[in-house]
Specification:
The chain has 16 helices and 18 strands. By secondary structure, the protein is an alpha+beta fold.
């Protein structure tokens, strides 16, 4: 048996030495592996060593992980075919204990080793070390071949590769980032760098938070039909719990709810109480629908009336005039709009909820927070609602070079620089000086910055001051068209509920 030490493997943290997991490394005669069932002390997981070359980790709380094994002396080289990890574990206590990674297993029941299955030369099973290390850079055709062998890590890498390619090919939507101030431009004088740094420091956490929330919550780019067909077929062939769950997400996002439900059922069948079982049960009715009824259609207008779902973050939606949406269990109302053939429900914090209309008149949720929500229309006779209003708002200007100085934010706001109004108002909110913050947020909201109107409403939840909703309504009315962003905030707030909340404090 050959022990291999390579610079590439040495770079992996915590891995000083790896045994080569290759068919040629297996002993030709006497078996040296201590086969049997090993259990963790807390009973959370068990390690089953089946043969000289194979085993698996099982647990009620996570998917079964298949292992490729080889032993030299007390070292146990492991290649995790489910996760792609390569690690050296160790036998001790006369083979009654196996320690490795975050696991310590103790022998529960010894067993005779089963014969080692025949391994095809050049396969991932035969040369597991090289195969698993090559996964991140492997071509899709190679990953497909390894996945077909039953290497779930290759299946997962194949889908991730396709998803990355789809994201890179997707056109980037222009954002609503604040316009950069003159003192932050490349051609700005060097002595203005301090002012730019001060503004960026103040806004850094907010801009980063907006970016992260958008990336985390937005739907993945849909995969092309041939790739969805390929992944669905591999799931049906391999039926890996984690892989089929991931394939279900891709199928659902690609407008194939029926196939997604089938993939969820395959994932659920591998282990009781796995994550996939919840949506699989809720979507049982989808399997009985004709495929034509579940075809995704392009949204051109907003629906009207009530929709209910048995699974998802939002269970009950009622679409009203002007794009308003009442949501059971949420204090505020949401505002809906049509974008890129889908229906988006705007949230004040986090990315939008995204709904895809189906040919049968129902809706499905495809954002990460509301995935697998299948919304059935409950009042098919509902009349059409009035179309949504296009509200006018401006991005937060970054126009206060003295914002980091003491009193600088308030001075900027007095001078009409709106970043100063934002920072001064938020500083007072942080100090729980809600009433003192109102003038700053009123000025910001009046200018058309959404954050100013939200800040004004947030303060009302602590004060219950009746002047706040009156001020919001006055700002809206002054617009004369009903398109000011204050009109949107005013219509979507639960002022009565917020007043009750303030009274409890």
């Amino acid at each position: 048996m050959t022990v291999v030490f390579s610079p590439r493997r040495c770079r992996t943290a915590g891995r000083a030495l790896l045994l080569m997991l290759a068919a040629t490394s297996l002993p030709a005669a006497a078996q040296s592996m201590a086969c049997g069932v090993y259990a963790q002390d807390d009973g959370a997981a068990t390690l089953t060593i089946e043969s000289e070359a194979h085993g698996f980790i099982s647990s009620p709380y996570q998917a079964t992980e298949r292992l490729r094994l080889v032993r030299q002396d007390n070292l146990l080289g492991t290649g995790n075919l489910s996760t792609g990890r390569l690690e050296n574990w160790e036998f001790s206590d006369n083979d009654r204990t196996v320690t490795g990674g975050y696991h310590t297993f103790h022998l529960k029941a010894a067993a005779a080793c089963k014969p080692v299955p025949e391994m095809v030369e050049g396969s991932c099973m035969a040369d597991t070390s090289d195969c698993l290390e090559a996964l991140p850079e492997a071509a899709p055709t190679q990953l497909h071949a390894w996945c077909s062998e039953g290497v779930e890590a290759a299946c997962t890498q194949l889908q991730e590769t396709y998803q990355r390619q789809a994201k890179e090919a997707q056109p980037q939507r222009a954002g609503t980032e604040p316009p950069m101030p003159a003192f932050c431009r490349d051609d700005a004088p060097a002595d203005e760098a301090e002012a730019c740094l001060a503004v960026m420091k103040v806004m850094a956490s907010e801009l980063m938070g907006m970016s992260v929330l958008g990336l985390e919550g937005s739907p993945d780019a849909p995969l092309p039909a041939p790739q969805l067909d390929e992944l669905a077929a591999l799931c049906a062939q391999q039926q890996g719990e984690a892989f089929c769950s991931n394939v279900a997400e891709a199928l659902w996002n690609g407008g194939r709810p029926q196939q997604a439900a089938e993939a969820l059922q395959r994932s659920c069948a591998q282990r009781a109480d796995t994550y996939a079982c919840g949506p699989a049960k809720a979507l049982a009715m989808v399997s009985r629908q004709p495929p034509s009824a579940l075809a995704a259609v392009t949204a051109t207008t907003l629906p009207c009336g009530r929709f209910e779902a048995g699974y998802g973050l939002l269970s009950n939606l009622r679409f009203l005039d002007g794009g308003l949406v009442e949501v059971a269990g949420i204090g505020t109302r949401l505002r809906a709009r049509v974008q890129d053939g889908r229906i988006l429900l705007r949230r004040d914090v986090g990315s939008d909820f995204v709904l895809q209309p189906l040919a049968n008149g129902n809706l499905v949720g495809i954002d990460k927070d509301n995935r697998y929500g299948y919304y059935e229309r409950m009042d098919k006779a509902a009349s059409s609602c009035q179309p949504p209003v296009a509200f006018v708002e401006i991005p937060q200007p970054l126009d206060c070079p003295t914002v980091a100085r003491k009193g600088g934010a308030a001075a900027c706001c007095d001078d009409g620089k709106l970043l100063g109004c934002k920072v001064a108002g938020e500083e007072l909110h942080s100090a729980e000086k809600w009433a003192q913050a109102q003038p700053y947020f009123i000025k910001l909201c009046s200018a058309g910055v959404r954050g100013g109107c939200l800040g004004l409403a947030a303060g009302y939840a602590h004060t219950g001051d009746p002047k706040v909703p009156q001020t919001m309504a006055a700002i809206c009315a002054k617009d004369g068209k009903g398109t000011h962003v204050a009109c949107d905030i005013d219509a979507t707030r639960d002022w009565a509920g917020m007043k009750a909340q303030a009274a409890e404090q």
